[in-house]
Design goal:
Elements lengths: L2 H28 L3 E2 H5 L37 E3 H6 L18 E2 L3 E2 L2 E10 L2 E3 L6 E7 L10 E2 L3 E7 L9 E2 L2 E2 L2 E3 L7 E5 L5 E6 L2 E7 L1 H7 L4 E2 L38
Antiparallel strand pairs: 1-8, 2-6, 3-16, 4-5, 5-7, 7-9, 9-15, 10-11, 12-13, 13-14, 14-15
Length: 267
């Protein structure tokens, strides 16, 4: 095989790998856009279809195939949430009316003139074996104008809470090198990092939770000191008055192993 063909093959593999990484990491920020229904009825923001498979056309757990092999037409095997739970790789999925089994944060009923506009709850009961299982509560702030012909839009500010065992800074690397980022001032003892690829966002690592802020980064940076935990053991909030309470003076440090991707989801 010629040297030029080898180089082209390496480039092709790199392009595919980058595309997969971008699709996996950025999918969560696109799932929480306000629909026309949510925009008209801000408090009706709960995503009742959240407990669905990560991508359309995914096989159900009882139709699992084999691992996808290069050159094979077989779809990738779907790993169920139960299988990941057994291996301590995930938390059991909870519904939109169930108490959340990890700590959830918000900005209270409003921030900087942006009122609480709804909630999205997503937990994937099945994902491809190489996939990143989504599991988060997303609080939306402010309204957005839906472009003509579109079905939704991204609100000015989103505050997502994930179990740190299912989302950590260790996920963001390519070829052994970390994706572009910069560390911001700590929030108490919590670590704060701003990323520019594959999507603009700020992540806060505290305790056993990873908090992710999407939207206008200028507003997101100012919002950091106003982050506050939701009442423990509560379902995802549906109304602004469920998010009342004082913001805390700083946040605790991330649990040992959480930022390195070594934190088990269950002890």
């Amino acid at each position: 095989m010629s040297v030029s063909k080898v180089k082209l093959g390496i480039i092709g593999v790199c392009v595919i790998a980058i595309a997969l990484a971008v699709a996996a990491i950025s999918s969560d920020s696109g799932d929480s856009s306000q629909s026309k229904d949510t925009a008209q009825h801000p408090q009706a923001g709960i995503d009742e279809t959240a407990l669905s498979f990560a991508s359309a056309g995914s096989k159900t757990p009882d139709q699992e195939g084999e691992e996808q092999v290069e050159g094979s037409s077989h779809p990738p095997r779907i790993i169920t949430n139960h299988e990941r739970v057994v291996k301590h790789e995930a938390l059991p999925c909870t519904g939109t009316k169930d108490p959340v089994n990890f700590e959830v944060f918000s900005l209270g009923p409003a921030f900087a003139g942006l009122a609480f506009a709804g909630t999205s709850r997503r937990c994937d009961p099945g994902t491809p074996s190489w996939g990143w299982p989504n599991n988060y509560v997303d609080y939306l702030y402010g309204k957005c104008a839906i472009p003509e012909g579109a079905t939704g839009c991204a609100p000015p500010l989103q505050v997502q809470s994930w179990p740190a065992c299912q989302r950590s800074m260790d996920e963001y690397s390519f070829g052994g090198s970390p994706l572009p980022h910069r560390k911001l001032s700590p929030l108490g003892e919590a670590e704060v990092v701003e990323f520019t690829m594959p999507s603009n966002r700020i992540e806060v690592y505290t305790g056993a939770t990873t908090i992710v802020l999407y939207g206008d980064m200028r507003i997101a940076r100012k919002a950091l000191p106003s982050l506050r935990p939701q009442k423990p053991g509560a379902p995802p909030a549906k109304h602004a008055n469920e998010l009342r309470g004082k913001s805390v003076d700083g946040l605790p440090a991330p649990n040992k192993g959480s930022t390195e991707g070594d934190l088990p989801c269950q002890s």
